[in-house]
Amino acid sequence: MRTLLKNAILLVEKDRWETVPRGFLGINDQRIDYLDAIPPAQSYDHEIDLENHLILPGFFNLHAHTGMTSLRGIGSGLPLHRWLKEAMFPREAKFSPSDIQRSSQIAILEMIASGIVSFSDMYIQPWLTAALVETSGMKANLSVPFASKDFSRPEIDQERIDTAVKVFQEYHQSAEERIRIDFAIHAEYTSLKASAQAYSEACQSCGARMHLHLAETEADVKGCIERHGVTPAAFFAGIGTFENPTNAAHCVVLSDADIEILREKGVAAIHNPSSNMKLGSGFMPIRKLMDAGIPVVLGTDSTASNNNLNFLEEIHLASLIHCGAAHDPTILSAEEVLTMATSAGAAAQGRNDTGRLKVGNKADLAIFDLDRPHLMPVHDAPALIVYAAQASDVVCTIVDGKMIYDHGKYLTVDAEKAKADYRQSCARIH
Amino acid sequence: MRTLLKNAILLVEKDRWETVPRGFLGINDQRIDYLDAIPPAQSYDHEIDLENHLILPGFFNLHAHTGMTSLRGIGSGLPLHRWLKEAMFPREAKFSPSDIQRSSQIAILEMIASGIVSFSDMYIQPWLTAALVETSGMKANLSVPFASKDFSRPEIDQERIDTAVKVFQEYHQSAEERIRIDFAIHAEYTSLKASAQAYSEACQSCGARMHLHLAETEADVKGCIERHGVTPAAFFAGIGTFENPTNAAHCVVLSDADIEILREKGVAAIHNPSSNMKLGSGFMPIRKLMDAGIPVVLGTDSTASNNNLNFLEEIHLASLIHCGAAHDPTILSAEEVLTMATSAGAAAQGRNDTGRLKVGNKADLAIFDLDRPHLMPVHDAPALIVYAAQASDVVCTIVDGKMIYDHGKYLTVDAEKAKADYRQSCARIH
């Protein structure tokens, strides 16, 4: 099946982002097979006229905890550590596998609707979410996150490590390679050092990627220094964690020496602007990180600290808050934010055949309807998407060439059943 | 015609915000005539079942420049004063009355779609916009904004003052009192002192309200001190401007003495978070202002510095950015932000019969559809609206009891014609 998307504005990232005002994008099965400002010579089975629409690479959400979606709106106004201990952990203790799965299913619906094609998830029992990723048609990097269960019993941590390896072996590259398995360490403050080191070594033995929380708050950094005499970045570097290709969520409180560690080790920094503000953590030193050549990518974090999974909001926040904090409207361009949301995210998931509109790449696309009052005129298309567009302007989401969301309709998931099941689950937990 | 909205979640502001989980709101002609958790005894002509919906007072956008909507996306990345001089003023010089009107019409469509029921506009030739407000069914506080045309010719400023008075006399309380006329001084840095004083006196003689830009950037304040030896707040206090009930947009760079002036004079501060970040101006000291008892309200500013008129975005930004800047998740509650967006805004427009769900008030309402993945569960309804909702969740906007927007359809404006006309206008200007 070959489909031609025609007459759309295309945002194409080469060395720079280029805008094709009226372009043609051909899809052959899973991949882009044509991309130009002139129509193809050959015919396609199916043509879709996208006059007044814009095609972007779909978005990569590098930091999610989909299993806890039902905690949306719980504990508003608490700082990170009280919020975790008083609002989150007691409720999570009540979760059954079905609660986790129902939360993940709603998260998937929400993400698809804002043009997210792939997410990196850090939540227990990832096989529950893997089944949903498979049927939904999305992509995901899942993980068995590590946290020490009982600091006085290091020996029981091995079980989680074994599970992580087993899940890697069973699920990595499954669902036609849409599912990848990462390793994930929740954070320094929830890990025994030796266990985190053993988990990092297991990651390396699998050749997997690492996902972790790093330097989210002043308290994290202070506590780590008290416990280990070094910052979280130095802690993880010291136990070999960063020998794995690593994505570090938050990166709010970093010294220049920390930034140098991240640069040297090739760690990608995941920016979660909503969550960092919502919990009062602060602003990532994004310009310093980017100037150091550290890849910066974007994440929603969970609905519990966001309180949604709307990627256009994260894009918008990332584009604005640093201008405000630095009193400098030039600190970050719209194009840089688009790169964070697309190609940089794909690369940080270890996916080298997506994230850009390019012949040969997987057709992972977000299509925006621009025939709306708030999206006129199209004077500067990247600025329009970053500063003016909303999640609801995404009318189609396409993954591996397959349309999974079309004008509010979910084509791979029974959304009404998912919502009904989820409502039941929420009622039980709260 | 009496209409009953039934089975909706109602957010009712009394001393505190209260959530009625399943409520009934009756509308008789323009006004709310019933509000309770139990159904009314009397029957209504028409009943609308709003199961899984939420009713809020509609939003009050206290700072807009609707006539320049066509400049959306122009001059991204420039700081305020270069942006004004290099990107805005040269294009505005090309505007015909029809360009202004087409821009205002698109702005009205955009505002209605995010639940805005009333806006305060600062743009020349307000009679152009008045005609559109009248037909659209919205409410607006319009103004003939003052700026000195030529600093070497103070005598020509009188003409603008005369026009402002004439417009006040002709349009104030027109369109069934939906239109109110304010006076507006663009800013200290665009005004001769004597002219601004004369304009302020004219405002007072009309008994009107004043709308102005105040202390938007460090450069504004520094320049004012160089020119007049005092801060902008002291400047306007000194020439009597604040003897009028005044709404001051931005209020980013304020000393404690400035805050004391605003408090003493009863000035309301208009928070424009998108614009202040987009132009690198900084963050309003919102907690200090609120703790001083100064009413804080919300505005979008124009699409040229925002780049949209999405009130849910402003609500979301206002709720988050101060938590990030102050490293304090408790600095501003969801309820405080809702008050800024509704009742405080209505009061700052001089409207005392709207802004809250209350029997006897005008039925100015925004109705949200909550049957969406990102709005479940409804654990904390104010937090849900502030942190998770999007403009597209507003499915109906009602002004003076009349539905003007219903599930994407504009009931008072020919949106297709408005968009086509506006596209032509944009093509001519750029």
How does this model look, in words?
2 copies of one chain form a homodimer. Chain A has helices at 80-92, 97-113, 126-136, 157-171, 193-206, 218-228, 232-238, 256-265, 273-278, 286-291, 311-326, 334-341, 343-348, 381-388, 415-429; strands at residues 2-13, 17-28, 31-36, 46-49, 53-57, 59-64, 116-121, 139-146, 179-185, 210-214, 246-250, 268-271, 296-298, 365-369, 394-399, 402-406, 409-410. Chain A has 2 domains: 2-57 and 353-410, Urease, subunit C, domain 1, CATH 2.30.40.10; 59-348, TIM Barrel, CATH 3.20.20. In chain A, the strands form 2 sheets. In chain A, strands 1, 2, 3, 4, 5, 14, 15, 16 and 17 form a 9-stranded mixed beta sheet that branches. In chain A, strands 6-7-8-9-10-11-12-13 form an 8-stranded parallel beta sheet, with helices on both faces. Chain A has 15 helices and 17 strands. Helix content of chain A is 38%, strand content 23%. The model of chain A has no long low-confidence stretch (mean pLDDT 97). In chain A, helix 2 packs parallel to helix 3 (126-136). Chain A is globular, with a radius of gyration of 21 Å. With 430 residues, chain A is α/β, with parallel strands linked by helices.
